[in-house]
Amino acid sequence: MRKIKQISFLLLAFVCMLAGCTETNTTSTAKERKPGTVFEVDGQTLYGEEGKFGMIKLNGESGELAFAVGQGRHYQLYFLAEAEKVNGKLYNMMALHQETGKKVKLYEAGIENAQSGAKFALDQSGKWKINVTVNKEPYASFLITAE
To answer: Model confidence at 1, in pLDDT bands (50, 70, 90)?
Structure first.
């Protein structure tokens, strides 16, 4: 009887361990599907730095990736922090490929009503660090994945 209790305990511990591993794998898979910083504001999924800067793709096919390699897309940009201080100022977006070190100037324009548009394409797949400056001062920085 004692052996049955020991085997039952070991079996229960093994099952709990398996359940924990499965949950961890599911979580990492979800992160892979949503690379970089992804957050929601007013029901919209934005890429950027939460509470500071966010962008959303406006055109393209339904269900396609937010950053499709070689396909120029139009994005709406939201300057979420200190909105009243950035209005009327010039922003600049640069991208740095994390593997090759390639730098690309994505877009530059003025900010109105804490928003702007941008149209750009990334020519290489992989992780890109996006740096946003306002009047040449660092404003936001985040990672995205182009596929």
So the answer is: low
What's the topology of domain 35-146? Immunoglobulin-like (2.60.40)
DSSP conformation letters of the chain = -HHHHHHHHHHHHHHHHHHHHHHHHHHHHHHHHS-S-EEEETTEEEEEETTTEEEEE-SS-TT--SS-TT--EEEEEEE-SSHHHHTT-EEEEEEEETTT--EEEEEEEE-BTTEEEEEE---S-EEEEEEEEETTEEEEEEEEEE-
Best CA proximity match to 131, nearest among 93, 101, 99? 93
pTM over 0.70: yes
Closest of 53, 45, 49 to residue 36, by C-alpha = 49
Tokens 């797949």, residue located: 125
Residues 67, 121, 36, 134: what is their CA dihedral angle, to the nearest 10 degrees?
A: -140
